[in-house]
Amino acid sequence: MMLSRSVAGIAFPNPVLLAGGTAGFGRELAGVIQIERIGGLITKAVSLAPRQGNRAPRVAEVSGAMLNSVGLANPGVDHVAADELPWLSERAPALRVLVNVVGFTITEYAEVIAALDALPGHAGYEINLSCPNSSAGGVEFGADAASVTAVIAGCRRATRRPLFAKLSPVLPNIPAMAVAARDAGADGVSLVNTMPGAAYDGAAPRLGNGFGGVSGPALRPVGLLAVQRTAAALPGFPIIGVGGISRVEHVRDYLRAGAVLVAIGTAALADPRLPERLVAELELSDG
Fold first, then answer.
1. Per-position b or e across 104-125, b if 16+ CB within 10 A of its CB
2. What does pTM read for this prediction?
3. Which listed residue (46, 131, 226, 245) is catalytic?
4. pLDDT tens digit sequence for 123-148
5. d(Cα 264, Cα 283) in Å, to the nearest integer?
């Protein structure tokens, strides 16, 4: 298996990425792993204004999965432009970086991109369509084709860099939303985001927000099916497979299902050196 690949015009040295929201902006991994060994990094979410996120506790371990309710906490686009992207450009110039972009109105996504687009330190964007549309009663942008089209088209007008639309696993027809994203100008999709879930300690919710997103091993079969169905519906359209990857066999499963890249999230939180080891195992099999 050839590890290097060109996806949406970006040259990735291998298919193993760090998933959005799990590796910050890369600083947290300095001195822990050789970050350039990883195929790429998807940053923490970036919104127009800083966000404090949800109240604690924000993370809970459950059988076969993790629940998180961070609430898209981030320092805002101005801080990322002034501090995080310059650090990435200087300290990890060879690292392929996708900035995860969030918004709460259709125009906010494009405004975030416009504030970052002229800066070095990143190769493209992952557009988080699981955000609630504050103008439509909190319905997720990714829940209907018209919203997907409006967000991605706005982002496309704001940049010539590659765009990857990140979709929720609870959509009734993920391939149809992927088609809408592609037709509006997306260069690929990330499948999948977390699933909604809850857990209790007696009568008390284990998360301060009352519910959160399910990730980890329990999400892997869901992610694989989403990738498989989308790859069948859109042959050749780039897919980043996300969900429950912790072994090299899981990487291969996603690639067999039709992904061209994979992103490691929850497993890397537990073991930050895991993605680097997966790259080494893939290189051994490639050799």
1. bebebbbbbbebbbebebbbbb
2. 0.97
3. 131
4. 999 999 987 665 655 568 888 999 99
5. 17
Percent of the chain scoring above 70 in pLDDT: 97
95 neighbors 121 (Cβ within 8 angstroms): no
Q: What amino acid occupies position 284?
A: L
- List C-alpha distances in Å: 152 to 118, 191, 253: 19, 16, 29
Tokens of 197: 């879930």
Q: What angle do CA 110, 116, 120 make, to 5 degrees?
A: 145
> How confident is the model over 162-175, as pLDDT tens digits?
999 999 999 999 99
The 8-class DSSP code of residue 95 comes to S
Q: Which domains does the chain have, with CATH numbers?
A: 5-286 (3.20.20.70)
Q: How far is CA 6 from CA 34, 162, 230, in A?
A: 22, 12, 20
User: Is residue 131 flagged as an active site residue?
Assistant: yes
Residue-wise DSSP of 56-67 = SP-EEEETTEEE
Per-residue pLDDT tens digits for 210-222: 999 999 999 999 9
Confidence of residue 2 (pLDDT cuts 50, 70, 90): confident
